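seq as requested:
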Amino acid sequence: MTPPTPLNEPLRLRAGLAPVVHTDPLDSSPRSRVWRVVTVAGDTAVVKQLVDAPEADERYTREVTALRLAARAAPPVAPALRATDPHERVLVLEDLRHRRRLPADWTVDYAAALARLHATARPQDTGTLPRWSGPDERDVTAFLGLADVLDVPAPHGVRDELDALLDRLDRLDRLDRAPGQALLHGDPCPGNDLHTADGVRFIDFEQAALGSGLMELAYLRIGFPTCWCVTAAPAPLLDRAESAYRTAWRAATGTDLGDGREDSPKAGLVDACAGWLLRGDALVEKARRGTGDHLVRIADEDWEWGTATARERLVHRLGVVAGMTADRADLRRLGRLSTDLRQRIRARRPDLRPVPARRP
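struct tokens:
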């Protein structure tokens, strides 16, 4: 049974709502409870409460902070925050309605809205949210360990390439406008984007952080790595979406997106996709992250998560990175290893399916 909404009288008044006459529970993650309320005046709102669990207070603070930063965007890119109750970890939000049928090129509007969300961060916001945390040496070791378990020889010098990649990803945070230059959603996946009649809005900012927007722009090409709904859009559509992101970023900030290298305008995006490939935790849902070496597990087992299995996700990412690093002298060994790993996994499991081209 769904518990009653925590919308008490003082919170309702702070939210500017008339008395509530109807309440509907909405689907949500196990980490929260969500309701839509209807008032006697006919207006609606969404009430969200983070349940009592580890890191619940931190997730609540992240969401409230991110929503307040995102409110700088015009037109909006997130629901308006109408009121909060920190003691009970409750937010009262603008009620937004998602269009049921989306066009095949929905990623173009998504990418432009994502850029405008990212651009709401300011230099003075540094410290208001955690810094984005990228792959580290443990991820590199696990990735090379997978190659070893699968008897795929790692090219000489690939470890040095991967260590240099970690350094570049760390420096990305400082390449755009200033430290804290982008407000990262943290999980910008299908389901956390609402395509409304007034444009795309993002919800559920519990994992928001500050960092380089390239790490989330990479979601489109690498296949939404933190999400149940992995997809693989056609290359021309990906190019359109990434161009829309860069155009929207330039319009919002007056600057070009800093990719880290003047000689290759997409170098930073390639690095970001390679970084996601290394993350074994991006093969499991959030509740299972940090619980073990999920890359090495793939050698002996596979598991379902949303629209693809773990091996199908990894095969897709290996193919993306192999293709993107074809003309990168500083990542050619990683590209070769990605190709070899992909071929080995597919040879062992020829029944693996390609990830879907469209979101459900």
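The CA atoms of residues 17 and 245 lie 36 Å apart.
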